[in-house]
From TrEMBL:
Pfam families: POR. It comes from Pseudodesulfovibrio mercurii. Signal peptide: none annotated. One of its GO terms (molecular function) is oxidoreductase activity, acting on the aldehyde or oxo group of donors. The keyword Oxidoreductase applies. Residues 15-193 form the Pyruvate/ketoisovalerate oxidoreductase catalytic domain. This is Indolepyruvate ferredoxin oxidoreductase. Keywords: Oxidoreductase, Pyruvate.
Length: 198
């Protein structure tokens, strides 16, 4: 097997969004391409509303991503995208949701919520390669709000930073997801690719 370029992907969202499901699906997609992959959950649990952070590393031995080391930041919730920015290397790629699932501290009025413009401004200080999409709305259009994560994975695969494209993700969905949810996720994948190119 040829030596693959190392790619470090940092994924973040809030509990109940399906961040870990998306992490597993992306890791299985990488594996299906004959590439070495390490993935792990760094922080958080599947409790609703808590922060969830995970990693997918292609061609790397360690599952850890230090500050300034992530090549790609995938943010399933915009505030979490902003919070995870210190992990992104200068010039890395950001794919982020524009739709909030505010954490408890914001919902209770203990913390202010930055605007999408604030978040885009913060991202622009790190990189010019950034895509923002309404993942929950896209998920609903596909048939299930959680499918918005697959739409974001589709956009990531279409962005040209990975050693494979959306077809590999499509094959992984067909190979790993229960038949009853495949159609919704395949539709979400298609919509995610379209959102990236629009």
């Amino acid at each position: 097997m040829a030596d693959t370029k190392k790619i470090r992907i940092f994924m973040t969202g809030v509990g109940g969004q399906g961040t870990l499901t998306a992490t597993t699906l992306l890791a299985k997609t990488v594996l299906s391409q004959g590439l070495t992959v390490t993935s792990g959950e760094i922080h958080g649990m599947a409790q609703r509303g808590g922060v969830v952070e995970s990693t997918v590393l292609i061609g790397c031995k360690s599952p850890k991503i230090g500050l300034g080391e992530a090549d790609i930041l995938l943010g399933f919730e915009p505030m979490e995208t902003m919070r995870a920015l210190p992990y992104l290397r200068q010039g890395g790629l950001v794919v982020s949701s524009t739709e909030y699932m505010p954490p408890l501290s914001v919902a209770m009025g203990k913390q202010d919520c930055p605007t999408i413009d604030d978040i885009k401004k913060a991202v622009s200080t790190c990189t010019s390669k950034a895509y923002f999409m309404a993942n929950q709305s896209i998920g609903l259009e596909a048939g299930a709000v959680q499918a918005g994560n697959v739409a974001m994975l589709g956009a990531l695969c279409a962005a040209g930073e990975l050693p494979f494209g959306p077809e590999a993700l499509e094959a992984a969905i067909k190979a790993n997801m229960p038949a009853k949810i495949q159609a919704v996720n395949l539709k979400a994948l298609e919509l995610g690719v379209k959102a990236l190119n629009s």
